[in-house]
Amino acid sequence: MEYSFNVFNAYSNDGICSSVDKILKSLPPQKLAFPPVVVCIGSDLAIGDSLGPVCGSLLKHKTQGLNAFVYGTLSAPVTAKEIRHIRAFLKETHKTSPILAIDAAVGDAGDVGLIKVIDAPLHPGAGANKKLGSIGDLSIMGIVAEKSVKSYALFNTTRLNLVYKMSETIADALSNLLWNKTAL
User: Fold this and answer.
1) Whole-number Å distance between alpha carbons of 174 and 137
2) pLDDT tens for each residue of 54-111
């Protein structure tokens, strides 16, 4: 199942929130612990790849006071190279928690600005033709640039405004979900 939301749509926060909630409810019983663990993947060294760490920093701030686990921030990024280590850590530390993975991605020209929520693991580095394995039970991808032969070069020409707006939209949606579920 895949849901797509345009970052500039006024209702994208609500759509992301409800689609993540729907996917979380459909996970197997052994993965229904709450809250979900959020892993924000990326690097602050390239604007286009910073969606994860920016989102992680915003989400960490918006969920202060909650028992929420957010890995991957601007001060402590989780890069694609660390996927196997974080995967082992999560398997041992958060055995029954659903893992929500967030990352920047490349797509078709008309997809730039879309936020995709998918009920499948994330494959970090796929846009740069890297095979790093998968992470997560569900994933959120922000399409920040058009796919090309040299997608990695596009990450350096991506507009910070787009990355920040997408990160803010994702963080708002997830913090709303976490606060609403915790208040119940």
Assistant:
1) 15
2) 999 999 999 998 988 999 999 999 998 888 899 999 999 998 899 999 999 998 889 9
Residue type, position 16, single letter = I
**Of residues 16, 30, 168, 183, the one with CA closest to residue 99:** 30
> What distance in Å separates the CA atoms of residue 3 and residue 20, rounded to the nearest whole number?
9
User: Are 39 and 86 within 8 A, CB to CB?
Assistant: yes
Q: Quick one: how far is CA 33 from the chain centroid?
A: 19
- Residue 156 · residue 48 · CB < 8 Å: yes
What backbone phi and psi angles, to 5 degrees, belong to 79? -90, 165
CA–CA separation, 170 and 117 (whole Å): 10
> Phi, psi (5° rounding) for residue 127?
-65, -25
Beta strand 99-107 pairing with 69-71: unpaired
CB 113 within 8 A of CB 6: yes
The rounded distance, in Å, linking the Cα atoms of 177 and 173 is 6
CA nearest 53: which of 132, 183, 118, 142? 142
Output the pTM of the full model: 0.93
